[in-house]
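step 4 of 6: structure.
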Amino acid sequence: MPDTTLTTLQGLKQNGEKIAMLTCYDATFAQAACQAGVDVLLVGDSLGNVLQGHDSTLPVSLADMAYHTASVKRGNQGAFIISDLPFMAYATLEQTFASSAALMQAGAHMVKLEGAAWLAEPVRLLAERGVPVCAHLGLTPQSVNLFGGYKVQGRQEVQARQLRADAMALEQAGAAMLLLECVPSALAAEISQSVKIPVIGIGAGVDTDGQVLVLHDMLGLSLSGRAPKFVKNFMEGQSSIQAAIGAYVSAVKQRTFPGSEHGFTA
Ligand code: KIV
């Protein structure tokens, strides 16, 4: 068992303490992130962008995710590990079970999938079978072609209402965590207060229960040379990667990151 469990994370929410999550794809960074105090390592399918150089997460395979999850597990020193189910690896219930089993057997403690209330049935069935699930809502990068780009979600009231309903439906179905990406800060705060499970934000303001950033982004590394608005370069003013990750953890815990300049309005 990791030192940080689902119970630890639920306790942090109940006590009003922030959760520091960071993406991670290999053993060395897993060790460094743990030593810097990161609570949760997310083996994100963002590895398709930052490791593989694709312009989306769609080309990432289940084998890629299992390989990187196993690598992170080997360097982990007590953090809770979440692993992304990649594009089309949960298109049917049978696929969802097989893909989740592959990631849990590679070392994940929870799987994350992208979608909305339609995920209620797979979430319920996974939870009944012992697999904790994080549901990723808002800007879900696997649907970039449907969205027509990487756009803030939930700005119009009709979208906001749908997001609130999706969050409630997924909690009721048994999701153990929600992740909100690029939604207005006020809406993310409201959703975080309305559910009992931890809500992690990226581009969702300071009032979620925790924060996540892509490792390469917060280290100031970018293939395109343009960082999204919600990113802060924590390498600035630091002399080592370890110190930069430590500064990120402190900023999340002390609520000094994200600032209002990193968030979105309706
Ligand atoms: O794949 C990923 O890294 C993610 C984060 C952007 C939240 O899902």
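step 5 of 6: annotate
 - The chain has a mean pLDDT of 97.
 - Residues 7 and 72 are 21 Å apart (CA to CA).
step 6 of 6: archive
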